[in-house]
Design a protein that fits this description.
By secondary structure, this protein is an alpha/beta fold. Helices cover 40% and strands 20% of the residues.
């Protein structure tokens, strides 16, 4: 009925949990691994999943490669991260509703709960986060961005299910801050692309092919937030989330989360954009800018939806 596609890199902590979570829903589980050096692949194979390896550029490119190359045979496909799980209520809802959806329904939006340091972050605009996560095979693609990429429908319409999935990373705060520090460079690339038009335009959530919430957030970010003076956006965003959207009701864990994700991370993005913009402002051609950004960031910066596909690697042994 449904296949689940999971991207992975060093996810041995989460693999047994996600496989156990999905066992009552489907056995069609695919891991696309970025050459992990822990036991991710072995654990996935032991749990009955099929594993493939492919060189990682960014999340969007990796997932689109998966859609283009994996031997998916089911009618429906689901995107899931290794650190995410489905609530029992959502699993039952998928089983009951998915087979009876009318043909013009090609996608399903699901609400995400974010769990941080063991606490469900319910406030600060963090719940519900409605995302397109299930679609009929061949009816969706992933927008090609370095950060904040969403699935978008190519045809048909989407419905929203009632129950949730959970984003619950079990790694420590050092991992959280290191991950977000790396994200700053990727988000800076997207910001600079909007300024300089470095990559060809790609149909995305702005074109109405994803959830209303995703479109609204992208619009506010592009039209308002990214145009604010240096440092103003992160502070305003934190204050909005923590006070006006009552993020303080999430307790001590909420203070840590909303400050780190709402202010600290956003401020680092502003700093990274400033740093990179200063390094490229004198360059006159887009090719020269892309070359310099690649040198400065170590990222493989090319046209983001250039054809990077390659034959499917054999499924790795358990």
């Amino acid at each position: 009925m449904i296949s689940v596609v999971i991207l992975s890199f060093n996810e041995q902590l989460h693999v047994p949990r996600v496989l156990e979570n999905l066992q009552s829903l489907t056995r069609c589980i695919f891991f696309v691994d970025s050459f992990s050096n822990d036991e991710t692949i072995e654990l996935a194979g032991a749990g009955g999943a099929k594993s493939y390896q492919h060189e990682f550029t960014h999340q969007a490119q990796q997932f689109q490669w998966a859609l283009d190359n994996l031997p998916i045979e089911t009618e429906w496909v689901m995107r899931l991260d290794a650190d995410e799980t489905l609530t029992p209520e959502l699993i039952e809802e998928i089983k009951q509703k998915l087979p009876s959806l009318p043909p013009d329904v090609t996608g399903v939006n699901i609400n995400r709960r974010h769990i941080f340091m063991g606490r469900w972050i319910k406030h600060g605009g963090r719940y519900p986060l409605t995302l397109l996560r299930i679609w009929r095979k061949g009816s969706a693609k992933i927008e090609q961005r370095w950060m904040d990429e969403h699935m978008v429908l190519l045809r048909g319409r989407a419905v929203t299910f009632d129950h949730d999935f959970c984003d619950d990373n079990l790694k420590d705060i050092a991992f959280f801050t290191d991950k977000h520090n790396k994200y700053t460079t990727r988000e800076a690339i997207d910001r600079l692309n909007a300024e300089y038009g470095l990559f060809p335009p790609d149909e995305g959530v702005e074109d109405g092919a994803s959830s209303v919430q995703a479109r609204l957030k992208r619009l506010v970010k592009a039209r308002i937030y990214n145009r604010l003076p240096f440092g103003v956006g992160p502070l305003a965003y934190f204050l909005w989330r923590y006070f006006f959207q009552v993020g303080f009701l999430d307790g001590r864990e909420g203070l840590i989360y909303h400050f780190l994700q709402g202010f600290w991370y956003r401020f680092l993005v502003d700093v990274r954009v400033l740093e990179l913009r200063r390094a490229i402002v004198h360059l006159e051609s887009k090719d020269a800018i892309r070359t310099e950004l690649a040198r400065l960031t170590g990222l493989d910066i090319a046209y983001p939806h250039a054809d990077r596909s390659s034959p499917v690697a054999p499924s790795l042994p358990a």
